[in-house]
Design a protein that fits this description.
186 residues, mainly alpha, two-stranded antiparallel sheet, 73% helix, globular
């Protein structure tokens, strides 16, 4: 039927226009529901990721405490252990370099290094190019202490893995370790 005098569709044309509008409205409504589901899923994923991060941080802290207890250098503070590890891995360093690497004030690092020097774990030598600075490096006793600490930690952890985890869980842990390494890469 043609449009009426007012320019409005009539009869079948009006019915078709109404159906198209209903279909369009229904599609918009469905799309909104779908978008809301995606948004909710994103919120749920974010919540799951935050829960995983919190659980992981707590577990890593517990693991680090267990490893400290397993090592023979229990009298050393975590900061002192970190400095020994850094000198072992990176070689001689100035107090300022150690402080920057550990994100502490140089004055705080001087206190840490002084205690390690008192324990004969580190020794100072003149800087080869800057006479105003000194380099700290591990003494022979320091090298032995670091090796002993690492051996004790690794032995405890290897024993825990062997006795507390099934072979399948050990494979899962190996894969998780690779993922954790990716997280800490800079």
């Amino acid at each position: 039927m043609p449009d009426n005098e007012a320019g409005q569709p009539s009869g079948k044309d009006q019915d078709r226009t109404d159906r198209e509008r209903d279909d369009h409205d229904r599609t918009d409504h469905d799309r909104t529901d779908h978008d809301r589901t995606d948004h909710d899923r994103t919120d749920q994923e974010r919540a799951d990721q935050e829960r995983t991060a919190a659980d992981l941080a707590a577990t890593v802290s517990q693991l680090m405490r267990r490893l400290r207890v397993a090592s023979p250098q229990g009298a050393l503070t975590p900061s002192q252990r970190t400095v020994l590890g850094r000198l072992s891995n990176g070689g001689p360093a100035t107090t300022a370099e150690l402080a920057r690497a550990e994100l502490v004030r140089p004055q705080s690092m001087r206190v840490i290094v002084a205690k390690l020097e008192e324990l004969e774990l580190v020794a100072r030598t003149p800087h080869p190019t800057d006479g105003r600075q000194v380099l700290f490096s591990l003494t022979e006793y320091g090298v032995e202490a670091v090796a002993s600490v690492r051996h004790s930690k690794h032995a405890w952890l290897a024993d825990a893995i062997a006795h507390r985890l099934s072979p399948e869980e050990q494979r899962t842990l190996a894969e998780a370790t690779r993922l954790l390494q990716r997280l800490v890469e800079e």
